[in-house]
Design a protein that fits this description.
- It is built from three helices and 15 strands.
- The radius of gyration is 20 Å and the shape is globular.
- The structure holds zinc ion.
- The site of zinc ion (ZN) has 8 residues, from loops.
Length: 235
């Protein structure tokens, strides 16, 4: 049987793929100001009201890390039972998109703030399952595009950009990849601590043995009852 004929058979096709779930969970850190400048993180402000040369990425500006972001990232790492790095650094993640005014995102690559943790997730049968956490790192968020006449670019007459969100502090955790065939799908934490936030997103990889293919979906968030949100910090 040729490779094509093999995939034409529905029963064979079902077993040709092994879903390997690799999740990225973004938590907005609940600080009063952005990660590298003193602009407010107040939600609901007028578009482009909370911006400055730093978060707009003007030439010659000097981003300065908000100490509260570091504190919350360390607390998030500890809450996820990670090893906190004695030395950590930021990196530039180059990409070109209208919601990223300086054309790169300040993120962490090879030396994240926390690695090697785990999270105990309750299951519907009363038991729990331990989910490994590969890493957690700090990064800045991008701005927000608003498409006129549609909720997406397709069908819109024009697009507007709001940079209020550019520079919001975010902690991104990456749980260990899990085979969905061998294990039940797990809920993911919307909040990685009382210091964390308001949204979460996730991606999944679908691997076709022996090669690889990619697909993406969004997971339903889950808030741990022991990790209730706190009020906003003063910085
Ligand atoms: Zn700013």
């Amino acid at each position: 049987m040729t490779a094509t004929a093999h995939l034409a058979d529905p029963a064979s096709r079902r077993h040709a793929y092994e879903p390997v779930i690799g999740l990225e969970v973004h938590c907005q850190l609940n600080t009063a100001t952005k990660i590298f400048c003193n602009c407010s993180t107040q939600f609901g402000a007028d578009p482009n009201a909370n911006v400055c040369p730093v978060c707009l990425g003007m030439p010659g500006v000097l981003p300065v890390l908000n100490a509260k972001v570091l504190e919350y990232a360390v607390k998030a790492g500890l809450a996820l039972n990670c090893r906190i790095a004695p030395y950590s650094k930021f990196d530039r993640k180059q990409y070109f998109y209208p919601d990223l005014p300086k054309n790169y995102q300040i993120s962490q690559y090879d030396l994240p703030i926390a690695e090697g943790g785990w999270l105990e997730a309750p299951l519907s049968d009363g038991t729990s399952k331990r989910i490994g956490i590969t890493r957690l790192h700090m990064e800045e968020d991008a701005g927000k595009l608003v498409h006129a006449g549609s909720d997406r670019l397709a069908g819109s007459s024009h697009s507007l950009v709001d940079y209020n969100r550019a520079g919001y502090p975010s902690a991104r955790s990456s749980p260990n990849p899990t085979s969905a065939r061998r294990k039940k799908r797990q809920p993911m934490p919307k909040s990685c601590g009382g210091f964390c936030g308001t949204w979460a997103s996730a991606t999944a990889t679908c691997r076709k043995a022996p090669s690889a293919a990619m697909s993406t979906f969004r997971c339903a968030p889950w808030v741990s009852p022991s990790l209730a949100p706190r009020s906003k910090s003063k910085t």
